[in-house]
Amino acid sequence: MGKSKYYVVWTGKQPGIYATWAECKAQVDGYPGARYKSFESKSAAEAAYAGGAKPYIRSGAARTAKKTAGPRAGAVPKSEIDYNSISVDVGTRGNPGPVEYKGVDTATGEVIFSHGPVAKGTNNLGEFLAIVHALAHIEREGSGKSVYSDSVNAIKWVKQRRVSSTLPRDKSTEEIWTLVDRAVEWLETHPYRTKIMKWETRDWGEIKADYGRK
């Protein structure tokens, strides 16, 4: 999540090289036959763009075979998504590194809350804070919503009311640990009934709160 990537769009609304997934996604979403790929460096992306998509993109026959193969065994259908919920996600640049998180309405994508960036933390600690923030918001509003997160570890920590992170406690991590300690204390003093659920990224795509830093 922390590594910079460059995105080549060979076929899309506006072909070119983009520095963020959000920009790339805007060019390919809903575009028939879109062809695009990420690269680890700008020079690699420039070379790939100049050379064309063929060496990097599977043939149309291969893509068609995948589309007609049917859903994978055990796939969770999108019909099971609970849209009366808040979806949370964390954005980091480096792990550990600066951390921010947000919660959005799963149905509309509207941002309900956000926090950060915090100077130094981890993906899992950020997800943990986001879930607890969502729980506190739901309790305060009395909305009865559920919570989605794509982090198995963070969900487990919330349910256990404790974290198991190896991030050192020092001056550089004081801010994140202060927030985490406060969140743990909230969990210990607030017996919530809100359902916390795992977002099934493999079947449903990226969680609605995704920062697009892939």
Automatic annotation (TrEMBL):
Domain RNase H type-1: 76-214
Cofactor annotation: Mg(2+); Mn(2+)
Main location, first listed in the record: cytoplasm
Family statement: Belongs to the RNase H family.
GO molecular function: metal ion binding; nucleic acid binding; RNA-DNA hybrid ribonuclease activity
Lineage: Bacteria, Bacillati, Bacillota, Bacilli, Bacillales
Residues reported in the UniProt entry to bind Mg(2+) 1: D89, D210
Reactions performed catalytically: Endonucleolytic cleavage to 5'-phosphomonoester
Keywords from the UniProt entry: Cytoplasm, Endonuclease, Hydrolase, Magnesium, Manganese, Metal-binding, Nuclease
Cofactor: how bound: Binds 2 metal ions per subunit. Manganese or magnesium.
Gene Ontology CC, one term: cytoplasm
Biological role stated in the UniProt entry: Endonuclease that specifically degrades the RNA of RNA-DNA hybrids.
Binding locations of Mg(2+) 2: E127, D150
Coiled coil: none
InterPro entries reported in the protein's UniProt record: Ribosomal_bL9/RNase_H1_N, RNase_H, RNase_H1_N, RNase_H1_N_sf, RNase_H_bac, RNaseH-like_sf, RNaseH_domain, RNaseH_sf
Protein name per Swiss-Prot or TrEMBL: Ribonuclease H
